[in-house]
Amino acid sequence: MPTPLQGRVYVVTGAGGAIARPILARLAEAGAKVAVVARTLEHAQAAAQSISDRSLVLPFSADLSRLDDAAALVRAVERGLGPIEGLIHTVGGFAWGPVKDAEPALYDRMFDLNVRTLFYAVKSVLPGMLARDRGFLAGFSSEPGFRGASPNTALYGAAKAAVATFLRSLDGELKGSSVRVAIVYPMGAVDTPQNRRDMPETSPETLIDPDEIAQTIVYAASRSSRGRLLELPVFPPR
To answer: What pLDDT digit, counting tens, does each position of 166-176 carry?
Structure first.
């Protein structure tokens, strides 16, 4: 039986990352056609090769901190796969550091990675979605973005709060359309190779399974506008 995502084109950015991989797999499992996007084509190709049905995926490279690259990506995806019906933006960055020690370059890095790339990606895909009156836009905030405080990671927390505010505001602007928005909040550390290296004394069983995040996103993407999900906090074990 066809799924709600069968044959629909979804763009997944940050595809070289550990959080994006299960999202790619779950979308392909649901029958979606997936544009696998990373900053380098090598990373995008490696992520695409992890999907068993290669007919459902196509790799692309783009620097989403540049609006021209984001717009060119949309044109390339639509030539290769068809009209874009979903964007799942996983690009982002994390950094420790109290405010007193933060360099101005860290501000630029946190907001460029977490906010600017989202803005450019959304700005590029949104006109087509509005013209077709159909689409799904998901971006990643974080626990600090959900709770509103991030001691010792203030610039990261501020950028993730900006992501949430941007997407909530976009949701308000889209009133009356069938384009849906979702904000994903991992409410703790996610089980990724980097986090395992950074937290060697932490049991992986206490971390959020990235596949659970992927399943949550696919579930939200599969809803209709009459039962949409906007806020998606995903919690670790108690």
So the answer is: 999 999 999 99
